[in-house]
Known about the structure:
Elements: E1 8-12, H1 16-28, E2 32-36, H2 39-48, E3 53-57, E4 59-60, E5 63-64, H3 65-75, E6 81-85, H4 90-99, E7 103-106, H5 111-122, H6 142-155, E8 161-164, H7 171-180, E9 189-193, H8 202-207, H9 224-227, E10 232-236, H10 243-255, E11 257-258, E12 267-268, E13 272-277, H11 281-286, H12 292-298, E14 301-304, H13 315-328, E15 339-340, H14 342-350, H15 356-370, E16 375-376, H16 378-381, H17 383-389, H18 393-418, H19 423-430, H20 434-443
Parallel strand pairs: 1-2, 1-3, 3-6, 6-7, 8-13, 8-14, 9-10, 10-13, 15-16
Antiparallel strand pairs: 4-5, 11-12
Amino acid sequence: MVKSKRPIVLLVDDEPDLLDLFEMDMARMGLDSERAASVEQAKARLQQGNFDLCLTDMRLPDGNGLNIVRYIVEHAPATPVAVITAFGSAENAVAALKAGAFDYVEKPVTPEKVRSLVRSALKAPDVNPGIGVDRPLVGDSPPMRQVRGLIEKVAHSLAPVFITGETGTGKEVAARLIHAHSPRGGAAFVAVNCGAIPENLMESEFFGYRKGAFTGADTERDGFFQAAHGGTLFLDEVADLPMPMQVKLLRAIQEKSVRRVGGVCEEPVDVRLISASHQDLQAAVNAGRFRHDLYYRLNVIEIRMPALRERREDLPDLVTYILGRLADHGASRGPASPVLQDAALAALGRYAFPGNVRELENILERGLALADGQVIAESDLNLAPLAEEGGGGEDRNAGLQAHLDDLERQAILEALAKTNHNKTAAARLLGVTFRSLRYRMERLGMD
């Protein structure tokens, strides 16, 4: 490979004329390029040197573009790869994104599409989730480590992400992390609560409108798609979209363009879609409330946010972080940082948290307001009334929680027995940190 200080792109296609066009496009953008006409040729080029981007056709004489995508993911993960798919081939596009492709472009391929894709790919930054973000994902439990790992994998891609989880688990925080560490991190992040928009206003809110399109349209206005152009559009509670709007959203995703209300021509839009819902979207599809083809487009990569009761060992870190934020925002009284009594922390460890982290924030803020000084006691948390307001949620979960506690206690006792009561070795055997083991034993009354 000829060494070059300019970014270099590997072009893979078995049509010489198309490769010539691609090479001219790259040259106009100030980029160097190399070409390959098959899967094996592409692998050979990749073995010879580093590329800043690979653009490959899906159909090749000795295989398909997915073979190249998988090879790059395994052997050159720092190289973004995009695929060219046949028009209307949603299955191939989704398969490529799931395999690890940065993005895809549908035929017929235009210079504008290629240039937009290349610009996005070459801006890709290094990914380091949790640093430099206003609201990090706090906690080092196995479920949270898994979430961070998924965020790291999907951040550099343009693949649509669907985030699922109960209310208050941090779905928007995860979406903002993905955006912040993606190639679009410097562009707009537009968050939309789909359940809060009146149905008769949805089309104009999403796609914008022309002046005079309806009564009161005195000026031209951009919609959510235009506002997020070049960045990320986050659709929260996407399951609440009515069926007519689902059809329009699907077309916008497929065509990568929108038509304003009252407009004639479609405008190209370049957005990365992240959606979320606390509802079971697959169940909504089965019930006929959500389009299967839209679900297929949105749920390319799924991230499940764990409930707080599934990661109770993160409570000490979460409490410290939240109390620190409250102190920074002036909610505390005096120069000292607010602290939680041990009995109060233990009470939180027994609580069901139907509202998850968001509820924990509210509980701590109320506890700080009721506390005498900066020390929050168990009585300041006022947990019992919350359990009653939730319709007996604590009672419903009591039997299950007791059973889970028994299983956890037995697993810890067995690990301690195998390690001659060496807690460090027991924690390693259980696959948790020493701090996590110590907290679990305290919560279970095993100290």
